[in-house]
UniProtKB/TrEMBL annotation:
Its main location: cytoplasm. It comes from the Bacteria. It is found in: Cytoplasm. It comes from Falsirhodobacter algicola. It is an enzyme of class 2 (transferase). CDD domains: RsmI (cd11648). Keywords: Cytoplasm, Methyltransferase, rRNA processing, S-adenosyl-L-methionine, Transferase. Pfam families: RsmI_C, TP_methylase. Transmembrane segments: none annotated. The keyword Cytoplasm applies. This is Ribosomal RNA small subunit methyltransferase I. GO terms for molecular function: rRNA (cytosine-2'-O-)-methyltransferase activity. Its EC number is 2.1.1.198. Residues 233-276 form the RsmI HTH domain.
Length: 277
């Protein structure tokens, strides 16, 4: 089957080369133009899987050359050619410069497609043992202590598992700040996922901060932190929520909605709603 016209985002392995999908290999084999954050990494991956370049353009597209490489790739798409963009590792657009390329293609009315596959975010969440029903990927934290703590405070109250990428050189400092801002929450450190020296370490943030304080670590790191414990709603909170809900709903429906959102007994909330009407 011929490759559909458009920009194809191709997820690539985060470690084990065999984690690439069959569809991704098809796209890399058939695309008219290949683009990558790191062309050496993509060329090596193609060599492993026996895919020849066959004279096709192989374009580097990264944070430092997007202004020049982006228009070239958009022109190729406008000419009807298929373009495959591969991240250095993992899913494109997740902490990856392909974001701007995708936006440019969409703005030009060009098709954007994806060949999903490996993702360090989802791989780490899968093995973490932390709640997976809601999660927030917050990317890399700032490099300075003050900015890092500010960023952590901004997400500390989010009712979701928090996921960060981190540099091995900053891991100890980040864990120290995480423990200071978020206290003894459960956390997980995933290092070198799918690779030979893969490691997953679990524990409360203060314990992890102490354990890594003097360690020298290497590799790709994902840090996951359990969500904050929900705060019990006060009577004032319930009343405020009911007054808002009653503006557009019946007593019964407003009480049901507020009870569900605040995890409270429906009968108690209904009685309060009656008193407010």
């Amino acid at each position: 089957m011929a490759l559909a016209p458009g920009l194809h985002f191709v997820a690539t392995p985060i470690g084990a080369a065999r984690d690439i999908t069959l569809r991704a290999l098809d796209i890399l084999r058939d695309a008219d133009v290949l683009a990558a954050e790191d062309t050496r990494t993509l060329r090596h991956l193609m060599e492993i899987h026996g895919i020849a370049l066959n004279g096709r353009p192989l374009v580097a597209y990264h944070d430092h050359n997007g202004d020049a490489a982006g228009p070239r790739l958009i022109r190729a798409l406008e000419e009807g050619r298929t373009v495959a963009y591969a991240s250095e590792a993992g899913t494109p657009l997740v902490s990856d410069p392909g974001f701007e390329l995708g936006r440019a293609a969409i703005a030009a009315g060009l098709p954007v497609l994806t060949a999903p596959g490996p993702s360090a975010v989802l791989a780490a969440l899968t093995v973490s043992g932390l709640p997976s029903d809601r999660f927030l990927f917050a990317g890399f934290l700032p490099s300075t202590t003050a900015a890092r703590q500010k960023a952590l405070r901004e997400v500390a109250g989010v009712q979701a598992t928090l996921i960060f990428y981190e540099s091995p050189k900053r891991l100890a400092a980040s864990l120290r700040d995480m423990a200071e801002v978020m206290g003894p929450r459960a956390a997980v450190i995933c290092r070198e996922l799918t690779k030979r020296f893969e490691e997953t370490v679990r524990g409360p943030l203060p314990e992890l901060a102490a354990a890594y304080a003097d360690q020298t670590v290497k590799g790709e790191i994902v840090v996951l932190i359990d969500r904050a414990a929900p705060q019990a709603a006060t009577e004032a909170d319930v009343e405020a929520a009911l007054r808002t809900a009653l503006q557009s709903a019946s007593v019964k429906d407003a009480a049901a909605d507020v009870a569900a959102r605040l995890n409270l007994p429906k009968r108690d909330v209904y009685q309060m709603a009656l008193r407010l009407t």
